[in-house]
Amino acid sequence: MKVSEGEMTFLDHLEELRWHIIRSAVAVLVVAVIAFVFKDYIFALLFAPKNGDFFTYQMFCKVGHWFNFESDFCAEQLPFTIQSRTMAGQFSAHIWTSIWTGVIVAFPYVLYEVWRFISPGLYDNERKLARGFILIASILFFIGVLFGYYLITPLSVNFLGSYSVSPEVKNQIDIDSYISVVRSSVISCGIIFELPIVIYFLTKLGVVNPDFMRKYRKHAVIVVLIIAAVITPPDVTSQIIVSIPIMLLYEVSIFISAYVLKKEQNKVT
Which residue ranges does UniProt annotate as crossing the membrane (predicted)? Predict the structure, then answer.
């Protein structure tokens, strides 16, 4: 870390951090207000995975036809309805959906504010190495968000919305419960896809190295299966579908760790 002559005091750092947090909050709020206004478009996206003509269902239905079996994804409409059981239920869902939309869309700017806070303490060469941090981290996050929306969400909605213990019980899903499934699927996948970035910095800090990651690859597989079981419906097919890209991210992270370690060793020699 770089030590400057005019080193800031602890209170100065707190003041600087406060303004970074305020600017990030304002960015989230601005996007949230826009999302609040365009609620028809936002909720159309939100409720799309409950319709039988959703892209993912159509894709899995066609795959089923290729293998000559009738898939559960071919239903024209899923057998559940969404309801609001409290007076402020829909308004509350509108507010919180707008806020979470702000968090997701403003994610690159929040990363930018994080970068502005930590960059003064880095050497010039460290700044150059991490210059693409915001772009790469944002791309990975949004790929994860799309993965969660187009794969995890429809798998979860289809399984949980169609599950029945008895014909006597009708699935009437509360709006908060439905939105919670979509939100957790999207955001958790966005965070999981940040794994290569996390490994990059952990390797630079000397916490992990490629040999360590290769040695504990089998343990990583178990952890990945546990993560897949948490964020997907409890069926083997869904867990395998989710586990494959996460394991690919793990393998990519090994190469990133090896690259960073090699660069660090070259500096020493």
Answer: 21-48, 93-112, 133-152, 185-207, 219-234, 240-261
